[in-house]
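Internal tracking record. Fields below are filled automatically when a chain is submitted to the structure queue. Please do not edit lines marked as system-generated. If the sequence contains nonstandard residues, flag them in the REMARKS field before resubmitting.
Queue: standard
Priority: normal
Entity type: single polypeptide chain
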Amino acid sequence: MTTNLIYSSRTTSPARNVVLVSIDWKRPGDGKTSLGIASIAATLKAAGIRYQLAESTVNEPGFCLEQEQLRIQQALDELGPNTLLGFGVFVWNDEAVCQLISRLHLPAGSRIVLGGPQISYMPAGKLEAAYPQAHWFVRGAGEQAMLRLAQGHSLDECGVHSAGQFDQALQASLPLHGLPSPFVQGVVQIAPQMRWETQRGCQFKCSFCQHRDADGRQPTRTFDLARLKAEAELFAQHGVRRISILDPIFHSNDSHAIAVLNLLKQAGVTAQIALQCRFEMLTEGFLDALQGLNVTLEFGLQTAIPSESKLIQRNNHMPKVEEKLAWVRQRGIDFEISLIYGLPTQTPESFKRSVDWCKRQGTPRVMAWPLMLLRGTPLHEEKDKYQLRETIGEAIPIVIASNSYTEAEYQTMADIAEAL
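SYSTEM-GENERATED OUTPUT FOLLOWS
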């Protein structure tokens, strides 16, 4: 079974304790523990590995790096020698992680392990210069890699890069079938608003997005229905009021999506359910399966201008988009559309045309977000080509000027977005 791959007992050294550090960027409705770190914790817990969580939120007014340092140091001292100290590194906490790993005092034999998007999308040979205090780097899925490191497997088996060694840019792989649930394991407390995932990855290659595996091996992977059924039943039992499903495109696999919708109905889930969808991939069967659930379809259109969508590899086929949007309206399904402003070649006029298109389609809610240049994405690599200029000193830098709009014109777009 797949779980035997995860819990293999073949090790080369005694098991290690683990401190997992989550420095998150919280959005309204987020629970205390992020799903990424919770999934690693659930995997360790199910395998009997001793661990502690150190959690904080970098965008809360009370965030204090010194307090976080004390909290982590206390956990390290309690767990003792040979402990693994694991950080999930994201654009919003990169600087904080760098400061922390330079200040902490590690017990004898302990190792700092970094993972997350900032690590997964870093080119080969560049990790040590960016994170000189770290020992091991996990590109890709963290659950099995951290468990195997804790169990004492060799680094090659874990898909881990060791500082100072030749960087093969290995990606840790992870079959989702049999992966322990952070909800069932009790790592994540059930709250009125929950975030949930039924699959990972995306088959598309939008040039601004990190959802696709860095090496492109496995575009999408689904969790097994037995796990999802158990989680849905927990949500129903606790009377969860809203579930935001994090799948990049929930219905990328129609049969899986319909099966998940049916098990939600069978479990008696009454929560409002937000699903991220793509217009062109809507089917009659999928839309029919929504009946009986309180759903909102969230469409990340990004732009209604064909030339802009082609440039960012979003490739919206607008006649098909309008056809499928008509299906949604005819069924009376709630939906919303999100756009990006600050795209290459975009202008305030073209951005307004995208907004106006959404409004002409009778969209209940239109939202727009500034462009971010995320590590490892094509747009990040092409920023000089379009003269994309970012904010400086922000936790999450955003693009504020390019060769098609000035900073003042960017502000015009930001004002339009704010008015939405």
